[in-house]
Design goal:
The complex is a heterodimer of chains A (about 240) and B (about 60). With about 240 residues, chain A is an all-alpha fold. Helix content of chain A is about 65%, strand content about 0%. Chain A has a single domain, classed as Ferritin (Up-down Bundle). Chain A is built from 7 helices and no strands. In chain A, helix 1 packs antiparallel against helix 3, helix 3 packs antiparallel against helix 4 and helix 3 packs parallel to helix 5. With about 60 residues, chain B is mainly alpha-helical. Chain B has one domain. Chain B is elongated. The chains are: A mainly alpha (about 240), B mainly alpha (about 60).
């Protein structure tokens, strides 16, 4: 296991595998940060239920753009240009959950509640990671992601309080996003994930992070009066 | 030191300005929530800024 802590000045001396994996993880992270606004801004900014919600959609997008900027800076400083993800169509996003378009408020609420939560897990993988410039940008980003998760949770609760029909729609959104959330952790037993861990770029295996997420989310769903979806139905990466 | 990616400085500066402008527009709307005209204008400003970012014409921003 690699236990050193690396600064930009040390990067050129690093093993090619380390350079490749760091560039890859930063590119995917940048894609996920900008992928959110590309999913919900077009339809949700004009269609959020209240003016305040419209403003919060805009603020959330602003924060995600800023997260992209910070990750792009860390990548750019080691020569990795991630600017192409700003202009690529949603269908080409690295992670399935970001391919498509959010067109309903239920989906928007549940996206914040479930998918931004996976985003938090992904960021937590870099806590105490070997690349210090990446570690340094985490606290502010995670704080803002916690805000997105809480907003999504509250908006989902709000929907559940509006009667059976809304509850049914919220449950459908949960069914849709839950499996995508679980897939975001990647394949169990992934050899590449092990190399990320070897180089100190991630803390947990894919299956461990997914298991932790399930342990956190399932009781919340139950406490909200929602059904926990089948964790295997419709999954692509088990 | 590694060679930096082209335009990273410019992109960083541009996006920082975008983020500040968005936060400014949101703040204006939220703090005047009892004035529908101000709120509408704030939402319109946010939309205008975000439309440009969503269009993703990076080379145009940087030039």
């Amino acid at each position: 296991m690699f236990t050193d802590k690396i600064e930009i000045k040390d990067f050129d001396k690093m093993d090619p595998e380390y350079k490749e994996l760091l560039g890859r993880v930063l590119t995917i992270q940048a894609d996920c940060e900008i992928g959110g606004p590309h999913l919900y801004v077009e339809k949700m900014l004009p269609a959020a239920p209240t003016k305040l919600d419209q403003l919060i959609v805009a603020r959330t997008a602003a924060e995600e753009i800023d997260h992209f900027r910070k990750v792009a800076r860390v990548a750019g400083d080691i020569g990795v240009d991630v600017s192409f993800v700003l202009s690529q169509p949603n269908e080409k996003r690295f992670v399935d959950a970001f391919r498509g378009l959010i067109t309903t408020w239920e989906d928007n609420a549940v996206f914040g509640f479930l998918i931004d939560r996976v985003g938090r897990y992904q960021l937590e993988e870099f806590y105490d990671c070997s690349y210090l410039p990446l570690q340094r940008i985490l606290p502010d980003i995670v704080t803002e992601e916690l805000g997105h998760i809480e907003y999504g949770y509250n908006k989902t609760l709000e929907l559940l309080s509006k009667g059976d029909k809304q509850k049914e729609r919220a449950q459908s959104a949960i069914d849709y996003w839950y499996v995508r959330a679980l897939d975001m952790f990647g394949r169990s037993g992934s050899a590449r994930a092990e190399r990320f861990r070897y180089w100190g770029l991630k803390r947990r295996s894919n299956e461990q992070a997914r298991e932790d997420y399930i342990k956190e989310v399932n009781p919340i769903l139950t406490s909200m009066g929602l059904k926990v979806p089948d964790p295997l139905k419709g999954r692509r990466y088990v | 030191m590694p060679q930096t990616a082209p335009n990273i400085e410019k992109l960083d500066e541009h996006l920082l300005e975008v983020v500040r402008a968005l936060h400014g527009a949101v703040k204006q709307g939220v703090s005047h929530s009892d004035d529908p005209k101000v709120v509408e204008k704030s939402i319109g400003d946010c939309k205008e800024i975000l439309d440009v970012i969503m269009a993703g014409r990076v080379s145009e921003w940087l030039n």
